[in-house]
Amino acid sequence: MPGRASYFFFNDNCSYQILRALEVVRPQINLADDFKYFVIPIDTVKKITELNNDSELELVEHTKFVKSLKTDYLQSYNHLDMLQKKALLQAVGQQKISTDYELNTIEKAQVFETAMKYYSIQAFRTEKNYEDEKYKLYLERVSLGQITLPGENENTEPPEKSHDSSALYFGFGEQNKLQFSSLKFRHALHDLEQTDFGTVAFSHNEMASAEIRYTQPDENSNEKSQNSVKNFQLFRFTLLNLVNMNPVTILDTNLSWRVNAAVKSEWKPDFETGFGYSYDWPFFKRTRVGAFLSGKTFSEYDPHGDFKYLNGIGPNILMVTRLTERLGLSIDLSYYLNYDNDPFFRYKSKMNYSLKQNFDFQLQFENHYNDSTETQMQFVWNFIL
Question: Would you say residue 115 has pLDDT above 80?
């Protein structure tokens, strides 16, 4: 009878079982006990690599980084110009390129190789056999001769060099002309503006995060609190905040989406969801722009001090750009229409600079419904919990 193993998504998953299997061969490594709360595959790879470098166990003889099918395809696709992308449609559909497209030898080779990579993705997605189509494209590509294509050796950092999954944020900022200090813990996994090798590109994955703030008393207020404990508050608890900007290509109409479920101070709900499409743009190092239709439920004090629950729906534009490999920037614009309240235009912007693998510096700005603005500077320490 085959052996059985229990499975729990967070802390007893397939990645954890691999660690246990390694311990059978090398009992002295005791890796699984390092993960008490949750196990992420990339973290296990990092632990094994770290142990291999710091000891004489030689668990890893050599490593070889292989791009995912999607990364390989999108990198090839983004090197095509508009005429090549039109030719790509014909190459995928007919496994050839007509002479109507005035492409030189290198440009044709780029199209054929991109088409083959697309069929590799389709075979994985649909579990269908596309070997005949790929073979015809291969013959067309070989007939062009041996060519080194631009971007063929594009540098992509291996995932084990990415930042760790959990994080602590130490921040200072100002809201409503009051200064505050903040401490935030993010259970997992990745900020939209952080360097994204080792994760899904242009994605945000935040689970079970909590932010505590200490607000400096207003020295001009007649009701200045004598008890500094009152100035501490759980500013926000985020159950889930996900952004997936899956890009549209000439061959695929991929859907992008975002969802955010949180509660703010005084247990005010903050829920947002949106669906739309994202597109790659040739700005800076890499840029992706998403156009969403978003709905939002939140509550704020209006300028008159009245507490209001708001339900809005409207367009949302999200732009994320990698100015350099270390510097990421997002600009998030939303216009929410409300039945019983005035429309609300929200502007959010955040910049992340990677100081080194597990240390980041962030600046962010956001406006609120009550006409106040919030600015904050944060230092981020990423670690494996």
Answer: yes
Query: What integer pLDDT is reported at residue 1 of this predicted model?
Result: 45
* Amino acid found at 316: N
Residue 269 has pLDDT above 80, yes or no: yes
DSSP code for 12? B
Residue at 95: amino acid letter: Q
Cis peptide, bond prior to residue 74, ω within 30 of zero: no
CATH homologous superfamily of domain 165-216+229-383? Answer: monomeric porin ompg (2.40.160.40)
Average pLDDT over residues 97-111: 92
Helices 131-142 + 105-126 axis angle, to 10: 170
Instruction: List the domain boundaries for the chain.
Output: 1-64, 69-142, 165-216+229-383
* DSSP codes, 279-345: EEE-SSSEEEEEEEEEEEEEEEE-TTS-EEEEEEEEEEEEEEEESSSSEEEEEEEEEEB-SSS--EE
Report residue 3's pLDDT band, with 50, 70 and 90 as the boundaries: low
CB 257 within 8 Å of CB 223:
no
